[in-house]
């Protein structure tokens, strides 16, 4: 039997190829509690077709996964999301979205390997789920910014109140965002890059 035509494995799409001008790549991790919009952010901002590892939620997760505020959510990330965005012709960001449920947090060890910084997505309807996430980043010494995802039914608070509630130092950027919009998600990533650059400048020997 001739398999040459029927078993051909397609290669990457032309638009998925890494730009030939790219000179540096940075790994960024997008973290947050269950249902805060991590998969949405990676998908909205990625210039390539994002890789997702979503699985349909079943009754086995009832009582295990806290989906308050995300009752309509039918799928969940079980390993990671992956995307890529070119910030400039020379600088490329590789984006890794982490699983939100605590039972999958053991995967964080591998996902954080080599990461330069992180975005913490926050849902004001469930602010408490962000406490452990931020604590883990601080334990690892990973620089991060906080992005408050705009859900239609989510309460809005002054940034100063949110900063106090999350116990963030004054140097850590916190901003509103809409993870569904590419421009908004890109602004968050640019804020993170500026923050990382400022840390490098401030720590440079005089």
TrEMBL record:
Identify the InterPro entries for this entry.
Gliding_Motility_GTPase, Gpn, P-loop_NTPase
Q: Does the keyword Nucleotide-binding apply?
A: yes
The alphabetized UniProt keywords are: GTP-binding, Hydrolase, Nucleotide-binding
> Pfam families in the record, alphabetically?
ATP_bind_1
Top-level taxon: Bacteria
Which family does the record assign? Answer: Belongs to the GPN-loop GTPase family.
Per its UniProt record, what PANTHER family does this chain match? ATP/GTP-BINDING PROTEIN-RELATED, GLIDING MOTILITY PROTEIN MGLA
Instruction: Please give the name of this protein.
Output: ATP/GTP-binding protein
- UniProt source species: Streptomyces caeni
């Amino acid at each position: 039997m001739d398999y040459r035509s029927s078993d051909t494995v397609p290669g990457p799409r032309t638009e998925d190829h890494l730009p030939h001008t790219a000179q540096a790549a940075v790994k960024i991790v997008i973290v947050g509690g269950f249902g805060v919009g991590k998969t949405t952010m990676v998908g909205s901002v990625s210039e390539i077709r994002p890789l997702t590892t979503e699985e349909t939620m079943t009754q086995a997760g009832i009582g295990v996964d806290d989906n308050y505020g995300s009752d309509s959510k039918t799928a969940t990330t079980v390993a990671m999301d992956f995307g890529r965005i070119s910030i400039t012709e020379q600088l490329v960001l590789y984006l890794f979205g982490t699983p939100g449920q605590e039972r999958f947090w053991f995967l964080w060890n591998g996902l954080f390997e080599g990461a330069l910084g992180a975005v913490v997505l926050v849902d004001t309807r469930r602010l408490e789920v962000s406490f452990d996430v931020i604590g883990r980043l601080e334990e690892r010494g990973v620089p991060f910014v906080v992005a408050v995802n705009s859900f239609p039914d989510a309460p809005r608070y002054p940034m100063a109140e949110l900063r106090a509630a999350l116990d963030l130092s004054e140097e850590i950027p916190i901003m509103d965002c809409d993870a569904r919009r590419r421009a908004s998600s890109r602004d968050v990533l640019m804020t993170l890059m500026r923050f990382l650059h400022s840390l490098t400048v401030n720590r440079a020997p005089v």
